[in-house]
């Protein structure tokens, strides 16, 4: 290494430390006691120089490659590509957020950019565990909070906070940190690509149809297929709490995550009457498939209705 390169690396390290100290994330207190103080949690990573250099270079190259991918065009009515093909989702981002969290608006804004990409499935999951702070989240549900806790249990790290971005069902990071989101996408993209099962999702005049391909090798465990009605854009005027007086925008807000099937490695087709699942408003619809109910994502597809 040249001295110039080492100086640049040291500057990068200082910049990362300054950035980490500036990030604030909200984490519920364990052994929940609503009268306890809120915890603001920041993370610092210490690694050996040689390992850190290798990791920064590899993840940086992968993240840049991902960020520079051209976004495929899709028919807004069918969600299909120019040749009628189902566009492949290259990453799934689940953003756990709350109207009662002052650290969350930057993450919600950041998700807008990902939500506009057809090759990324970016979803908002508003949680309800900050409602006691003075403002009841108008979009939150207990099921979203349960899903976030289930992810923490599956990973084994117990990390539950807002804003939290869960990437491809297997990694997490602070939801307002674009650099870390890109790095986690790069870090999990190989495993996602290896396990990904092709899915097709479309609608006839009266039916919703989901087709799942067979596995090349028997899966380690069965996978849950979820259907999610998604509100494309929601604007909320917050009148109390930490975000008092703000108008907040949320993108791809999941109304409900409904299990519609279990995949065991064999090709399958699911046909459902469309009427019970249709929602009023500017809605989109997504299907997800993941190992168990809170494991890695192994399939995803959009449908624009």
CATH topology: Immunoglobulin-like
Q: Ends: how far apart?
A: 55 Å
Compressed to H and E, one letter per element, the order equals HEEHEHEHEEHEEEEEEEE
Principal-axis shape: globular
CATH superfamily: Immunoglobulins
Walk me through the structure:
The chain is of the alpha+beta class and 305 residues long. It has one domain (54-59, 73-303): Immunoglobulin-like, CATH 2.60.40. Helix content is 27%, strand content 29%. The protein contains 5 helices and 14 strands. The protein is globular and about 50 Å long. The model is unreliable at 15-23 and 29-79 (pLDDT under 50).
List keywords for this structure.
single chain; 305 residues; alpha+beta; Immunoglobulin-like; five-stranded antiparallel sheet; four-stranded mixed sheet; 5 helices; 27% helix; globular
Set down the secondary structure blueprint.
Elements: H1 3-22, E1 26-27, E2 39-40, H2 49-67, E3 91-97, H3 105-115, E4 120-126, H4 142-155, E5 164-167, E6 171-174, H5 178-195, E7 199-203, E8 207-212, E9 223-237, E10 247-254, E11 258-263, E12 268-273, E13 283-291, E14 297-303
Parallel strand pairs: 3-4
Antiparallel strand pairs: 1-2, 3-5, 5-6, 7-8, 8-12, 9-10, 9-11, 9-13, 13-14
Helix pairs in contact: 2-5
Summarize the structure.
By secondary structure, the protein is of the alpha+beta class. It is built from five helices and 14 strands.
